[in-house]
Amino acid sequence: MNIQRKYSLPNCTLLLEGLSDITQTANFQELRPQLSILVNAECYISSYTQPIVGGREFFESLVRAVSAYAQEVLSNIPNPQVQNHNSELVELQKINSNSHRLTVHTEITGDNLGGNTSEGQPIQIVLNTVQLFDLVEAVDQFFADSQTLPELSLELHPVNRSYSGSNQTLLKQAIPATMGVSSLAVAALAFSLIPAPQVSPPQVNPEVESSTSIPTPTVAVTPTTTPTTTPTTSATPTAVQDLETLLKTVPEIKDPSQLRALNRQVYNQIHPAWVNRSELPEDLVYRLGVAADGSIVGYKAVNQKASDAIDKTPLPKLLHNPANRVPNEPIAQFKVVFTQKRFLEISPWLGYAKTPEVTGKKITDTSKIKDLNQKLYSTIRQNWSVTPTFASNLKYRVAVNKEGVIADYEPLNQVAFDYFRETPLPQMFQSVYGSNVAAPDNKEALAHFRVVFTPKGELEVKPWKGYK
User: Fold this and answer.
1) How far apart are CA 468 and CA 412, in angstroms?
2) How far apart are alpha carbons 183 and 245 in whole angstroms?
3) Which residue of 75, 128, 146, 305 lies most exposed, with the fewest beta carbons within 10 A?
């Protein structure tokens, strides 16, 4: 489903657009569904009529650049992270005490600043200090929102005092301001009030790499005769044990319908995070442990090559921190394949015991379904005006209520996810629910349909017969 998140300040607004899983939201009674896959990011600055627009790579670079530069400005100490211009899409540089240059390099999409930027040329805008710190606060609001890209964390590093000319001058420059959690962390790190985190060197299993982040009361965090790779965060220690050992101590989720919903949620986490799809030595296969809320709690490479190439995957970054997890909670197992052809494949580790069903109440009256089928076809046909650029069929499950209003949609194949913007489905959803992040959860019965968009511009809408 299409959702939006907005973080607004008087002089800056961040607008994020992405997808989530309405089934999981309903099952776990979340007031706000998790935006787990970022499709589009827009940054609006006061006095500029058009936003800076980009995707996941742009947004990650933006928040890194803003956080590192804010640390430099607050401390008046040159920050090595800010000086590293070669590897970032976004840069911030000081012009004078009240002017700061924001530079965005190529690979940005959309009408950037009114379309005045030619291809290959960077975008440059000048921020005053008020605009800069509103941008910092907008980034703070994002990091404080646990329901938006929760796997994206801010890694801050203390600035060495050797870069500073005078500690007394530095402290006097700590001007009072309204700052969020991450801004305070930036300032504290800048003043060297927070020591560098202690990071233990990883222990690597000579056979395969295995990692989990679910603590259990029966396992102590001590070295064992079979070492595992221990993921570490910037400030929070994790309890780690072998995935197979964990599976012996907690219940396993095997219900086909629940596995199907989790499969969709896991895909939506991994697919956008797999940014660098460089050539792989072979298909990389991993066994994944997933909690009932969709959190990735463990992974295990199936062979040595998959273990050696773990850094070519986003799995270490997506491993969930165990601090707030429930001990002994059930987990599901999935097979994750990063293919040489740069496709992502996810399926239950042992397959489905039977064909999964869509959860929730369903409209079953034959005449009503026939009427809704025609209404959905007409609505999509009337709103589908984009000339297809995809080469194979886009397949979706689309749910509507008794009035024919769209309530949910789910891509069923790879191209359906990649080209969903060429369909009217996200616009249909947004036109109904406006800026709401999810459709109202009123538990009403829904009719489900299989919708296919063909490269020739043909549209097929048929009653849902279940997953194939």
Assistant:
1) 10
2) 40
3) 146
